[in-house]
Amino acid sequence: MQRFGNALPAIALVGCVALIALIVPLAEISGRGYGFFTRDPTQIGQIPYYSGYLSSLGVLTWATGAAVALFSAVLLDGLAADRSEATFLFYFGCLTALLALDDLFLIHENFFLNEKIVFLAYMLIALTGCVLFKKHLLRQATGFAIAAACAFALSLIIDRFQYAIQERIGDFRILFEDGSKFFGAVCWAIFLCKASAASILQSARS
């Protein structure tokens, strides 16, 4: 993982150039201008700047948690004698980054993937991590992780029974579904930040 950390600047720069270059074939294939891929969606759609603000903040929250966890993992891999903490943070940091990308591009609804299969895959990855790193989860800020899991479960349940719930409470269904997901993302980001800080402090003391 330390080699990954050393190579990260180069990976970031190459990835940046590749993403910019990707716009050219995408524009050619879709028949759209370059601005369609570079500008803000609110400008392209000519909708108010505050449209979907909770969703945008949710993506930022996911990204924050992922960045903190991955940075801490690389740092701990070079400092700590026990690298299991680094592996724990790297695993869940990668999962969180994947969830951020999904939330940003709605991967579970697009790319010809079955939504149920995508959610099942995420659940299996999360459960595998819970089994592999149970010791680390139990000694960190577990309350925030549990709160996040409960909030995500509530959001999925509301989505599963959305039509029945919509008939009873109307548009409040959307507020509760998306609000629960956002609350869960915040709790999860707090968990990752606290777990990262605790691991780094413990490593510094030892």
Q: What labels describe this entry?
A:
globular, single chain, transmembrane helix, transmembrane, membrane, 206 residues, plasmid
Describe the 3D structure.
Keywords: Membrane, Plasmid, Transmembrane, Transmembrane helix. The chain crosses the membrane at residues 7-27, 47-76, 88-107, 113-132, 144-162, 182-201. This is Oxidase. The chain has 206 residues and is mostly helical. It is built from ten helices and no strands. Helix 4 (53-79) runs parallel beside helix 10 and helix 8 runs antiparallel to helix 10. It is globular and about 55 Å long. It starts with a helix and ends with a helix. The protein has two domains: 1-49, no CATH class; 52-205, no CATH class.
Report the uncertain regions: none
Number of helices: 10
How many E-type strands? 0
Query: Which sheet architecture does the biggest sheet show?
Result: none
Structural class: mainly alpha
Instruction: Provide the β-strand percentage band.
Output: under 5%
Rg, Cα atoms, Å: 19 Å
Number of domains: 2
**What is the H-and-E element order?**
HHHHHHHHHH
What is the molecular shape? Answer: globular
| Helix-residue proportion | over 70%
| Mean pLDDT figure | 91
CA-CA gap between termini = 21 Å
Brief synopsis:
This protein has 10 helices and no strands. It is mainly alpha-helical.
Question: What is the fold's blueprint, element by element?
Answer:
Blueprint: H1 2-30, H2 35-38, H3 41-44, H4 53-79, H5 84-105, H6 115-132, H7 134-139, H8 142-160, H9 162-169, H10 172-205
Keywords: Membrane, Plasmid, Transmembrane, Transmembrane helix
Transmembrane segments: 7-27, 47-76, 88-107, 113-132, 144-162, 182-201
Protein name: Oxidase
